[in-house]
Amino acid sequence: MPWSGSLARMPVPQLASVDGSISSTAEARIPVADDGLLRGDGVFEMVRLYGGRPFTLRDHLDRLERSASAIELPLDRAVIEREIAALLAELGDADGALRIVLTRGGRRLLLTEPLPAHPEAIRVATVTYAPNVILTGVKSISYAANMEATRLAQARGADEAILVRPDGTVLEAPTSAVFWASPDGGLRTPALDTGILDSITRAQIVSELHVDEGAWSVEDLRGATEAFLASTTREVQPISAIDGRELPGAPAPQAAREASEAFKRVVERELS
Fold it and tell me: Mapping DSSP to helix (H, G, I), strand (E, B) and coil, where does residue 267 land?
């Protein structure tokens, strides 16, 4: 059945698969000496579930393989695919998210999760951030710096951070890609070679709309007429203010509407 795009949400059973053994998330256990816990040494993916069906699962598993290879972490994709199928069969047709985690201790963790609540629009603040070159492009579970950036932005009255390199080049939000309508015209987003993650939601939007990718200065972002974040759980979320400046297009910018409509088309094609 084609995806309907309904906003109705069924409660999501919180299930966990640990090395293929399925239980409730609350009952799942891993050894405390796992370096995934002690050192944040591992990789992960978040996959959107529409009616229990994973969106762009192949792309997520491809990126999981690239991330694991970059930190020399063994991965057996066929085993992971079988365990995902078993967990989703147990889950049923709920909307939610699937978290995939591989740890240095050799654990394979799959978690079904409810979607986090996101406001209609979000206020952001820029935070200086120096990417770790070794982990560029790796979706590592070492997310402490990203979470601290969010807290720094919140201390300034914003909801989320936009990471900016010390040289003033815009990167991304801690868990999202960022797009904006430049004062010079056109929709922009940072290029992958600036040091950002190869976001799958970002890639879908770029494939559907005309988007200029490049190394853009923070002043260009601050002068934006409208902007939005894009991620697996947010899909497309408008930005209402940047560094305290209200955007002219808020709270319902045209670019965000067009991106949201384009993304829905991609979901419909994928799940139909």
Answer: helix
Q: How far apart are CA 112 and CA 93, in angstroms?
A: 12
How many helices (DSSP H) and strands (DSSP E) are in the chain?
A: 7, 14
**Is the pLDDT at 6 greater than 90, yes or no?**
no
Cβ neighbours around 166 below 10 Å, total:
8
* Band (9; pLDDT cuts 50, 70, 90): low
User: pLDDT tens across 146-177, in order?
Assistant: 999 999 999 999 999 999 999 999 999 999 99
The strand pairing partners of 110, in sequence order, are 17, 100
What is 15-113's CATH topology? D-amino Acid Aminotransferase; Chain A, domain 1 (3.30.470)
65-70 LR contacts (CB < 8 Å, sep 24+) = 66/137, 66/138, 67/43, 67/137, 67/138, 67/139, 67/140, 68/43, 68/102, 70/135, 70/137, 70/138
- Identify the weakest region by mean pLDDT among 62-76, 131-145, 232-246: 131-145
Query: Domain 122-271 in CATH: superfamily?
Result: D-amino Acid Aminotransferase, subunit A, domain 2 (3.20.10.10)
Distances in Å between the Cα of 258 and the Cα atoms of 11, 70, 211, 263 are 29, 35, 12, 9
Is beta strand 160-164 parallel, antiparallel or unpaired with respect to 122-128?
parallel
pTM for the whole structure: 0.93
